[in-house]
Write a structure and sequence with these properties.
about 60% helix, about 280 residues, mainly alpha, 14 helices
């Protein structure tokens, strides 16, 4: 019973931030879109919305608890890496935020490097366009595996609940913002790139050029990309001429619900995984 208020806080704040950011970015895109979309906005939003709802239901049914509730469950664990009495709380908070963001970076890298995981993540990258609704285009298996990794990391770290909630809210906000079909003014873009993932930075990750998809894995902060040398400043074609998506899937058929849910299990996915991951290219 004591965890119920935290469950409500976690759920309500997550969806409040998501809806607020989605509306803000949708207005920005409508006012000043970066690129013309292949498919009509209404069709994209409705189908990506259905995928997001199904993904949320599947993830919750499998994982059962959220990261904040997990952090409360292990709050008194003597095995937690950050749960040490001699460690000042501000330092525990900062380390928890950074390390949880590193977990997401590592998982994202894994989705590109491991062929079987790329089959699942391919669904996100096969969007023929790049706009705010792309943020909700993720296969249920991808989100569930990521949630499982986050829960394990929270348990291992015994991360403070407030830090875990902070990461959740920053992550959902950044996911929506970084997929905007828009660009910041250059005088804002340049300093922002030192602290957060901007739409222009993440758009490079969605380029049809596979080598560019293997860069800019960051979720909240770009620092892991800087550290592990996976950061790319500009696409080869330039921001004005970049083409997003996966070659061969840049059509309206790629936004059908059946395609997004069933693609990882098709032979096409196996063929893509055998040719399009960094590991596969290295072994050739």
């Amino acid at each position: 019973m004591m965890t119920m208020p935290w469950e409500r806080i976690e759920s309500d704040s997550y969806w409040l931030v998501f809806v607020a950011c989605f509306i803000l970015i949708a207005c920005w895109e409508s006012w000043r879109p970066k690129k013309k979309l292949i498919a009509p906005v209404g069709r994209r939003w409705s189908r990506h919305g259905m995928v997001m709802i199904l993904t949320a239901l599947f993830s919750v049914s499998v994982c059962r608890v959220g990261p904040v509730i997990m952090s409360l469950a292990v709050a008194k664990s003597r095995f937690g890496l950050l749960n040490k009495p001699w460690l000042p709380y501000p330092l525990r908070f900062i380390l928890a935020v950074l390390l949880l963001d590193l977990v997401t970076y590592t998982m994202h890298w894994s989705y590109h490097a491991v062929p079987i995981l790329w089959r699942v993540h391919h669904v996100h990258h096969s969007d023929p366009d790049f706009d705010v609704s792309t943020a909700g285009r993720a296969h249920p298996l991808e989100v569930t595996l990521l949630q499982g990794a986050n829960l394990a990391a929270v348990a291992l770290l015994a991360a403070p609940p407030v830090a875990v909630l902070t990461v959740e809210l920053l992550s959902v906000a950044q996911t929506v913002i970084s997929h905007a079909n828009a660009s910041l003014p250059s005088w804002v873009e340049k300093p922002m790139r030192w602290f957060f993932i901007t739409p222009d930075v993440h758009r490079i990750h969605h380029s049809e050029v596979m080598e560019e998809q293997w860069t800019n894995y960051g979720d909240i902060f770009p620092w892991w990309d800087y550290l592990f040398r996976t950061y790319r400043k500009e696409p080869a074609a330039g921001q004005e001429h970049i083409v997003v998506g996966i070659k061969g899937f840049q059509n309206e058929a790629s936004i059908k619900l059946g395609f997004m849910l069933l693609f990882p299990f098709r032979r096409q996915a196996q063929e893509a995984a055998s040719a399009e991951t960094p590991a596969a290219r290295t072994s050739v």
